[in-house]
Amino acid sequence: MSERNLSYYGILTNYPDKSTGEYKKEVLLFNDNRHVQVDAFDKFVDHLDLHEGFKLGNRVNNFDENIKVIMW
Predict the structure, then answer these.
(1) Domain range spanning residue 45?
(2) pLDDT digits (tens, 9 = 90+) for 29-63
(3) How many folded domains does the chain comprise?
């Protein structure tokens, strides 16, 4: 991340639910606290949580001293 000057990055997947046929989304956000202001990352996570169009649920937080990983 530091070589490309990235603050944080994410992965978005979109797939059809086999039982309903409805498309579902999964999101993973990764933040290495050494390369970004934590406030910017937290604000972006809050924006995704509150955005009704994304319909994200079941948020999982995984933190340690230097890394934050958020998944929905």
Answers:
(1) 2-71
(2) 888 766 556 677 888 888 888 888 777 878 898 88
(3) 1
